[in-house]
Design a protein that fits this description.
Among the domains are: 204-362; 367-386 and 396-415, no CATH class. It is an all-alpha fold. A hairpin with a 5-residue loop joins strand 1 (366-367) and strand 2 (373-374). The chain has helices at residues 14-36, 39-62, 67-107, 110-119, 121-131, 140-167, 169-200, 205-243, 249-259, 268-280, 284-310, 318-332, 336-362, 387-391, and strands at residues 366-367, 373-374. It has 14 helices and two strands, in the order αααααααααααααββα.
Length: 415
């Protein structure tokens, strides 16, 4: 058996290059197909590892470097602190969604609707007098037909969602356990994985560190800022629904916790329609008892709580965050509320690296922010980082290309 030697001893032939690239591409496609099933789990584990790595290091130091024990304790705390409440929420939301189906099919029948309309016949007559110049009138039978059809559609939707949540509970538990297991090995083998990726990815060390720091900062702002604000709004909204005796406080609390991630719109997508329904139902007291506290809660969360928790770490305009959240949710489901903004951050960071480090090599003369010109032929300034420290061992040639590196003499550089 021939021993594999890491150090290249001869220039590979063109045929060897082609064979290696084809084999690498085919194996990469197979690996991606295998990991696609667990893509969301792996991504969420990476986010959690980035957020919890410092507490993990401190705990491992207290345990005299026993990384496996420290990782096991953190994962056990996550199981007890997240899995049990999440399972209860899934069961309760499933029960309430099926309850909406029963409400729409059993309580909103023709007899009860006709009785409700007869109690407000005077209002219907006044409305018909307003429509009389247009030659239009509305009868109780028309209202019953339209309301029954709408209620049946809404009921079927909630029934399907309730059954889906109930049947997906087992999948959720399995996915959660896989997430915890992945997080455990990221803690234990994280340093080796980081060194391997740093050696394989063809980006300079400081560029990789920049992408990783922006990734962790965005993860922190999403989980800590939007996460805590969303949970507070969900709990507050569900409590208001419960105190006012409205249907499905847990269900609408979960919906508001998710909507609390979205800037501008937020939980108003729930409490404003409910306020309108209560006003039309002739219950202004309950309507304003719902509107006022939830409006205050949403305003405080968006204007005070999120800026305090997040600060300036996101470095993303509000409009981009808005589209990233909605687009991520549409593409990936609830996980997209985290995937969308984080991928937008990674993309913009890579664009910044291209602008600062790569674009000057492609454009002969490039104006900077202060109006001066960047000369890509200029020699590297004395205070620029050594290429050995950026690209690894070697000379002034860019690693793997044989080209002499030339550094911009002006510009803002990497932030």
């Amino acid at each position: 058996m021939v021993e594999y030697v890491r150090t290249p001893w001869r220039q590979p032939s063109r045929l060897a290059w082609i064979a290696l690239l084809i084999a690498l591409l085919l194996s990469l496609l197979v690996v991606l197909r295998i990991l696609a099933v667990f893509a969301s789990v792996i991504f969420m584990a990476l986010v959690a590892a980035g957020l919890l790595y410092q507490p993990f290091r401190k705990l491992a130091a207290l345990l005299n470097g026993r990384r496996r024990i420290a990782a096991g304790l953190i994962c056990l705390a996550l199981v007890l602190g997240l899995m049990v409440p999440s399972a209860w929420l899934a069961i309760e939301v499933s029960r309430e969604t099926i309850g909406f189906y029963q409400l729409s099919t059993e309580q909103l029948n023709e007899r009860t609707l006709l009785d409700a309309i007869a109690a407000r016949q005077d209002d219907l007559d006044r409305f018909n007098r307003l429509l009389s110049p247009l030659g239009v009138s509305i009868t109780p039978e028309d209202i019953v037909q339209r309301v029954s059809a709408a209620a049946a559609g809404v009921g079927r939707f909630f029934y399907r969602q309730g059954v889906s949540i109930a049947t997906g509970l087992v999948r959720f538990v399995i996915g959660f356990l896989i997430w915890v297991l992945t997080l455990y090995f990221l803690f234990v083998d994280g340093r080796a994985l980081r060194h391997w990726f740093r050696a394989v990815i063809p980006l300079a060390a400081d560029e990789q560190d920049l992408v990783r720091s922006r990734f962790v900062d965005m993860a922190g702002s999403l989980v800590i800022g939007n996460g805590i604000a969303g949970v507070i709004q969900g709990i507050g909204g569900g409590l208001v629904f419960y105190l006012l005796g409205l249907q499905g406080p847990v269900l609408w609390g979960v919906v508001m916790a998710i909507l609390g991630w979205i800037p501008v719109i937020g939980i108003s997508a729930v409490y404003v329609p409910v306020w309108v329904i209560l006003m039309l139902a002739g219950e202004p007291g309950r309507a304003f008892a719902l509107l006022i506290p939830l409006m205050i809660l949403a305003t405080v969360s968006e204007s005070i709580l999120k800026p305090v928790l997040v600060g300036r770490r996101t470095q993303l305009p509000t409009l981009l965050v808005f589209f990233a959240l909605l687009g991520g949710f549409d593409a990936f489901g609830p996980v997209g509320l985290i995937v969308g903004p984080m991928m937008m951050t990674v993309f913009l960071t890579l664009v910044g690296i291209y602008r600062d480090r790569y674009q000057p090599f492609l454009v002969p003369s490039l104006p900077t922010q202060d109006g001066s010109q960047v000369d890509p032929e200029a020699p590297r300034p004395a205070d620029a980082p050594a290429l050995d420290a950026v690209n690894g061992a070697g000379s002034d040639s860019v690693a793997g290309t044989g080209l002499q590196a030339r550094w911009p003499t002006t510009g803002d550089g990497l932030k």
